[in-house]
Amino acid sequence: MRWLVGWSSVAASFGAVGAVGTAGATPASGSPGSSAFSDHESLTVHPVGAQLLWGDPDPLWAVGDWRPDEVRTLSVDAFTRIAVLGCCGASDEELRVGLFAARGGALRHLTAWSGSYTAVVQVGRRVTVAGDLAGARPVFYTPWANGTAYATAALPLADLIEAQLDIGHLAALLACPDVPEALRDGTPYAGVRRIPPGHALVLREGSREITGYEPVASLAVAAPQLDPERAVDDVRDALVEAVRARLTAPRHAPETLPPDPGPVPGMGPAERRAARGAPVPGIGADLSGGSASATLALLAAGLPGLPGTVLGHGTGAGERLLAVTFNDLTAEDRGNKEELERAGAIAANPRLHHVVVAAGEEALPYADLDSGPLTDEPGPSLVSAERHRRRLAAGSADHFTGHGARQVLDAHPARLADLLMDRRRRDMLRPVTALAKVEGPSAHSLFVPLTVYRAARRLARTPYRAGIEETAGRLMERRFDEPGARGGGNGGAGSALDASLAALAWSRPGPAARWLTGEALAEVSVRLQGAATRPTSVQRPGEARARAALARAAADHRVFEQAAEVRSQRLHAPFLDNQVVRASRNLPEALRVQPGARAAILRTVLSGAGIKDLPPGWGATSHASSAAAARAGLRTAVGDLIALFDAPLLADAGLIEARVVRKALRAAAEGGPVPLDGIADLVSTELWLRRLVSRRGTCWTGTAAPRQRAVAGGVPPRRAL
Which residue has the higher pLDDT, 717 or 199? Predict the structure, then answer.
């Protein structure tokens, strides 16, 4: 895991350190973690294995296995400087211009470059840390030492202040994972906060301010709509620049590995390398057969205009892009076979080297849950980390993935309400007709357009406060009969109409809410009622739901990166870059809601890059194979999962009743109507808690380092909250 950390405090709180490469702070009396120290002691604390970027009085460190080109600093003088960590396509001159713009208060310039990165600017005693638009690169902060400490990971800050678990946040994460009003700015650690996506943290001698750098859409007046062709062209340019930023970065070979044991029957060199846990040097990409991963693979393989390459192709001289396809041998549905056929047809491109990673029951979800790293936060990808790690280990040192494309490009069903608010009823005709066709020829399908129209009109006429209070009431009354917001109530396989109707609301309970205790649901309900009464930047319902869905997907992707991490490998998700997110938000709503809009947009992107020969069926979407794999994994691992919930930490915290969850696990394994997403949320949270409690060591060292790690002593009982 890689992160940056720093702090800002009043000058009197710091002790200057003479050793080169070291910076520290003296905790002031009364601050968290400082009870054993006096104000007169000059003691230091610094993160383990850190690289100092600049020192006192406002130090900044980069921690973890950062590559040399991923850490860039530029200084104008001793107290006017910028640090950019991650993959950033800006030149030194562009960084200098951004530094001067940020000095004048124009923070948006720090987020306008291609790539995925975190920018930190120091001007005098003012420190600015800019978060990203999606939330894939979050920024956390906590009060400490008469000031504020910040980091791009929550766990190091929890260690710094010796934080306990925030059980209320875990309850909200299970009950309403897609509702920002329930999660607020909290984290699983008490006292550690997160800045919202699209905001920056500004520190001045310890005092902090959170400011947004993006305009917020009004509820009453629609934002000016760009011409559809121009908007799609902007998305194409942003996506091309995002891919180009990765291709122009220095190439890295994996670190030294154990020697190759030699020929193994049925295994080639690539398979043996993957078995040893090493990626291939160079550039690679997922190739699942879907439109998002195929677009990135084809762009990276044949992107024109890159200097220093033969014929201007994106890969180097004689180099082919490694395209990795995962073949689930346990899946027998037709959708999986069609995706594999499309992936094979796309991989016929001579600039692609296709590798198929086949796996059976050993790679099903819920397999090998005992192994795996501790992630910064819980996430549903913990239950399938081993499955993804097998695929990624066969990939390259720099590997593209299509994560986030659906949330960035597709239209959330709640956007139909936005169209009604703009009196654009005609644009609703094609999407509601497509839903009727999906339902099939029946008497019920005749009423689908009217049903969807009524639900959209109800949402358009529902005030924000009433919508949030309705969800709070549903939690108190335990009303979970409607399909969940992430897959429906029938094991994650609810109809498209049911999922759309469930999404036509300001907020909805999550699929795991039905198994929480009444006390936990009551606490989340109180959170929602409090949020409904506070002033807020009112957004249109479709825009608000779309941004919340993107933030949740970005947070899940961040956990996925940590859980499935392969040594010496970098995962790149260009669809979550600031440039791509900002360009996609300018797509007209009338274009977004049309059936097949994402595939049409990406087809235009590829056409503009000179790639027009796509296989039949390209752009088709299918989630049936993932649901079938989750069901098969549950059946295989049901015994281990029931043992996991014999004495769960979630029950010790008062969030669930173990007997109820064990009953749900058995029902899900037998094919009952149980939301599989909810099961994944419960299992991943319990796994994360166990790994956190069994953790050893701390992120900090030095004479004034915290005396214990975060959540020392285990999970606090419910009565301690």
Answer: 199
Q: Which burial class, exposed, middle or buried, applies to 264 when counting CB atoms under 10 A from its CB (0-12, 13-18, 19+)? A: exposed
The DSSP H or E segment spanning 447 is none
Residue among 206, 595, 637 at smallest CA distance from 431 = 595
β-bridge mates for residue 321, sequence order: 352
Q: Work out the pLDDT band at 226, boundaries 50, 70, 90.
A: confident
- Residue 616: asked if its preceding bond is cis (omega within 30°), the reply is no
- Rounded mean pLDDT, 411-435: 88
Q: Round to whole Å and give the CA distance between 382 and 359.
A: 18
In this structure, the strands spanning 80-88 and 71-77 are antiparallel
**Closest to 409 in 3D by CA, of 134, 113, 117:** 134
Quick check: 682 and 662 in contact, CB under 8 A?
no
Q: What is the CA radius of gyration of the chain?
A: 25
For the chain, what is the largest distance between any 2 Cα atoms, rounded to a whole number of angstroms?
81
Residue 86: HSE in the Cβ half-sphere, 13 Å Cα cutoff: 29
| Angle, CA 601 vertex, CA 596 and CA 603 arms, to 5° | 95
Question: In this predicted structure, what is the pLDDT of residue 489?
Answer: 41
Q: What is the pLDDT of residue 405?
A: 95
Tokens of 357: 């990673």
Three-class DSSP category at 262: coil
Residue 603 predicted with pLDDT over 80: yes
- Between CA 58 and CA 81 the distance in angstroms is 12
- 176 SS3 class: coil
State both tokens at 381: 């990808």
For every residue of 609-666, DSSP letters joined together read TT-----TTTT----HHHHHHHHHHHHHHHHHHHHHTSS-HHHHTTSB-HHHHHHHHH
> In the structure encoding, which two tokens stand for residue 358, read together?
């086949």
Angstrom distance (rounded) from CA 392 to CA 401: 10
Q: Taking a C-beta distance cutoff of 8 angstroms, is the pair 435, 497 a contact?
A: yes
Give the model confidence (pLDDT) of 101-147 as tens digits. 999 989 999 999 999 999 999 999 999 999 999 999 999 999 998 89
Question: The tokens of 42 are what?
Answer: 């000059």
pTM, full prediction: 0.90
Contact 9, 205 (CB under 8 A): yes
Please list, in sequence order, all residues whose beta carbon lies within 8 angstroms of the beta carbon of residue 102, skipping any fewer than 6 positions away.
82, 109, 110, 121, 123, 128
Residue range 610-640, pLDDT digits in tens: 888 888 878 777 666 788 889 999 999 999 9
Q: What is the pLDDT of residues 234-267, one digit of tens each?
A: 999 999 999 999 999 988 877 655 555 556 555 5
Alpha-carbon span 341 to 551, nearest angstrom: 32
Classify residue 289 as left (phi > 0), alpha (psi -120 to 50) or beta: left
Q: Give the three-class secondary structure for 273.
A: helix
For the packed helices 541-563 and 385-393, what is the interaxial angle rounded to 10 degrees? 70
In the numeric block, the tokens 């180099």 are attached to 319
Note if the bond before 57 is cis, omega within 30 degrees.
yes
In the predicted model, is pLDDT for residue 211 greater than 70? yes
Tell me if residue 101 falls in helix, strand or coil. Answer: helix
- Spell out the alpha helix ranges (H) of 385-517: 385-393, 405-409, 415-421, 429-439, 448-460, 464-477, 496-503
527: alpha, beta or left, given left = phi > 0 and alpha = psi -120 to 50?
A: alpha
Return phi, psi of residue 389, to 5°: -65, -35
Contact 352, 321 (CB under 8 A): yes
